[in-house]
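Posting for a labmate who doesn't have an account.
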Amino acid sequence: MLYRTFNTTYITISRWQMFALLYIGSLAIGPIRRFERRWVVVSGNSLSYYKKDDSSPALGIIDLPGKKIIKGDDDKENNYRFELTDKDNTYHFMCDQKSDREKWIDAISCISYAPFGGGMFGATIETAVKRERIHGGGSIPRVLSQCIGYLDKDFRIRESGIFRLPGNEKLVKQLKNEYQEGLEPNLEMRADTHTVASLLKLYLRRLADSIIPAKFYEDFLSVIWTYDINPTEGLQELKFHLNKIPIPNYNSLRTLCVFLYKVQALSDYNRMDVNNLAIVFAPTIIKRSNDQDLSLEMSDMTKLKKVVEIMFLEHQTIFPEEKIQDSIDIDEIDHESLKNLYSVLTIKFEVLKNELSSKEQEVCRLQEKLDEANKNNEDLNRRLQQTQQNEINRS
């Protein structure tokens, strides 16, 4: 049986443990050697593996930033494999269940693709914005911004069943993987309304903590008691609590609420009124921490849904304007992140230099063809003039 635990911080998954099957070796053609069962811990920027548990010395430590993840083919014995690879080594893993492999990949990719501006699925909003700002990102996560930017068109908002009907599952996974690897998928060229809506919901479901961090759960739940007695005071209390959440979370929630208000306003077309939207989004906007009883959250769902409905309908009152994040402090960036960023920028520079060189060579070839065409044109003009002169002489 596979086990996993999280610590109770509200920043990100800083520790992930479960039994997994692990093999370490160089990349080779042919059958893989026998797997050995090891206790594996993902913590910080590394993966450590132990013989039984992490109370004994680690058998090995794998630095995760920059590692590429390759999902293996599923075999008939239900052995679900994936690899971590770089230019020097390949590490082979195997899980007993497909769902556990997906959780492993999500947890590891948050770290391994971070140097490339990726690893956003499974991170917190605050972590995502901090990482993306190093690469020139904005005030909310890029996935959230681009999905809403794509959907925020009148003809797409009017789409019947938006956020209720599923999109192309295969394309959703492809787009998710590209964002996770730090790439820039072109949604306009490749996607459709329901696919991008499904991608947005998937991103919010995979957050390490809800948009409103779990530690504020009880504060927001208590708002309904005040609101039912005095709506004006309830809105002021809600605004007060919203000002306590991190700025990236505040801006992300504001952007989402402004957009979903537009969606519910066109419910005559899309069949998604404020109640339906609250049912879909309440569990990702605010939820209890992972170590608390989910049955309690289910009993609170009516109150949570009402809080979310209020945020949609009263967004102009409780979110008067976007908050400005302080400029990034270079002292907040750890040495390893700077080293990884330098490595990535060096690679990008080399790629751009090669592309420029290729373009220059192409320009030279085109210039040669143009010179040759001009030369042929001049030769034809001389021949034409000579022919005209011969005609004149004959006459």
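Reply:
Got it, the structure tokens are right above this. The chain has a mean pLDDT of 81.
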